[in-house]
């Protein structure tokens, strides 16, 4: 008889994203995108994402955050990352991807969480994580208006830290 229990996820690959409604747990995927996973982990560890807004949220598509300016044009002080596109994973509900400009090597700190599958993004954006708990809380994030999905008075990340490092 074989053991069907999935392998344990290293604690360093789990991120706790705390919203006003509760905790979302993200499993990083360094097997798909090691540079993006490490960037997200290190920014979360330093508290970069605390109180940042989900500035662009499109119903049936995705919630985007990680920009301290809330405009969709901001990022961290770190250099942009080279894309880590893969054909090994797909953009499905709960996928966490790296937001970028039209230039494929422009991802920095912004990320998005998928509400639904989006095959048009496959191989075009870097996948570096997946929501493994709390997707129902992501579903409650305030939506934006119009085609841009920009949110007036957006919901914010309370804190975000690696599971191995509790929020201060």
UniProtKB/TrEMBL annotation:
Its EC number is 5.2.1.8. It is an enzyme of class 5 (isomerase). Signal peptide: none annotated. SUPFAM superfamilies: Cyclophilin-like. It comes from Endosaccharibacter trunci. This is Peptidyl-prolyl cis-trans isomerase. Pfam families: Pro_isomerase. Belongs to the cyclophilin-type PPIase family. GO terms for molecular function: isomerase activity. Keywords: Isomerase, Rotamase. Residues 11-165 form the PPIase cyclophilin-type domain. It catalyses: [protein]-peptidylproline (omega=180) = [protein]-peptidylproline (omega=0). PPIases accelerate the folding of proteins. It catalyzes the cis-trans isomerization of proline imidic peptide bonds in oligopeptides. The keyword RNA-binding does not apply. InterPro entries: Cyclophilin-like_dom_sf, Cyclophilin-type_PPIase_CS, Cyclophilin-type_PPIase_dom, Cyclophilin_A-like. The keyword Membrane does not apply.
